[in-house]
Design a protein that fits this description.
The chain has a single domain, classed as Beta-grasp domain (Ubiquitin-like (UB roll), Roll), CATH 3.10.20. Helices cover 26% and strands 26% of the residues. It contains three helices and five strands, in the order E-E-H-H-E-E-E-H.
């Protein structure tokens, strides 16, 4: 089987599920049944017992960096990503960095 081919066997599909914190990243490899959704995979992975703050109705979810809905059906070799909420507004963060840069250039 070539790397880009999808398996269609009944026994299951292999996926990865990842969650990253500032100083720790957790990756779980799972074999799940075909037709498993992203939300079901999060539950099956046990990530919620490790990180109770994970809530599929709040946290955004993705597959290989592309946002997906919790009900999205997984395919073989998908990597499910659980995204944390942003702590600061990206525009505000860029503004602060720009001000800091301007302050160091004047010296």
């Amino acid at each position: 089987m070539e790397a880009h081919e999808q398996r269609t066997d009944i026994e299951g599909i292999d996926i990865e599920l990842v969650y990253a914190l500032p100083h720790r990243q957790v990756l779980r490899r799972l074999s799940v049944s075909p037709q498993t959704t992203v939300e079901q995979a999060v539950e099956l992975s046990g990530m919620r017992s490790l990180f109770p703050e994970i809530d599929c109705s709040i946290n955004k979810l993705g597959i290989f960096g592309k946002l997906v809905r919790p009900g999205t059906v997984l395919r073989d070799l998908d990597r499910v990503e659980i995204y944390r909420p942003l702590i600061t507004d990206p525009k505000e963060s860029r503004r602060r960095r720009a001000e800091k840069c301007r302050g160091t250039q004047k010296r």
